[in-house]
Amino acid sequence: MLIDKITDLDYGQIRKKIVSFIKNELKSSKRKGFVIGLSGGLDSSVTTTLASEAVGSKLHALILPSVKVTPVRDIDDAVTLSKKLNVTYDITDLGYVHSSLARRLQSGSLASGNLLARLRMCVLYSYANQNDLLVLGTSDRSELLTGYFTKYGDGGADILPIASLYKVQVRALGRYLKLPDSILTKEIGPRLWKGHTAEEEIGMPYEEIDSILYCIIDLKLSPKKTAQKLGIPLKKVMKIKNMHDNSVHKREMPKICKL
After folding, report:
1. Helices (DSSP H) in 132-205: which residue ranges?
2. If I label 101, which of 24, 30, 50, 253 is the partner at 20 to 30 A Cα–Cα?
């Protein structure tokens, strides 16, 4: 299966490269350390584990739930991992601020969810500014290529250590790092509203999403040939391709009027 080829990587070497990258970026920045938003999900847990190995006590985690939408399990997983890695952490519930602003702005569900992601980034950058730190991003390649992130929300960061890895590769790296099953097997999702999961919103599992991206981006196959190679409906391929094409603005700096 193609997914086996995608995940057949030297994760020991990948671990070394990412740890070295994090170390070097901190050294060149001349900052005191990193702050990371630790959700208890796969991406942030893998990134926290590698960053802890890279910089030790120079890493601080902020756990930023909104209690009305964040599962208690996610908070517990984030706290447990922090303690296991000896990473200092703080928990700040953004529920009241988020709900108050959402009501004031009369936000619909999507806008309200993106507002929560942007509030989290505001808190991370405020903490970073106060303590002379860099914000450590947790986005992976699947999210970046499909635009499945909030612009100036979880997409905002100073460095992105795992952004060259597809979601299925991040999960395989997590297994290599021996992350708890409670993190490795939970449903993927940014938790921007109650019951929010990525695969349900997109409409297909990441095994399919990443296989489609790999064919289109890495193998440079046409949508039709991708559908034939994977044995899936063309409409699924086109959905992922359209997500990629329509999110170009998220991967670029704002356009400047040149005078």
Report:
1. 141-146, 167-176, 181-184, 198-202
2. 253
Q: How many CB atoms lie within 10 A of CB 160?
A: 18
Extents of the domains making up the chain: 2-195
Spell out a b/e string for 5-18, using b for 16 or more CB atoms within 10 Å of the CB, else e: ebbeeebeebbeeb
Give the CB-side neighbour count of residue 186, counting CA atoms within 13 A. Answer: 27
Q: Class of 2-195 per CATH?
A: alpha beta
How many alpha carbons fall within 13 Å on the CB side of residue 68? Answer: 12
**pLDDT tens by residue, the chain, 259 residues:** 899 999 999 999 999 999 999 999 999 999 999 999 999 999 999 999 999 999 999 999 999 999 888 999 999 999 999 999 999 999 999 999 999 999 999 988 889 999 999 999 999 999 999 999 999 999 999 999 999 999 999 999 999 999 999 999 999 999 999 999 999 999 888 888 788 888 989 999 999 999 999 999 999 999 999 999 999 999 999 999 999 999 999 999 999 999 9
Gap between the Cα atoms of 193 and 190, Å rounded: 8
- Please state whether beta strands 88-91 and 133-136 pair in parallel, antiparallel, or not at all (unpaired): unpaired
- Rounded Cα gap, residues 162 and 46, in angstroms: 9
Q: What's the pTM? A: 0.95
With the C-alpha atoms ordered 63, 200, 154, 51, is the resulting torsion angle positive or negative? positive
CB 204 within 8 A of CB 243: no
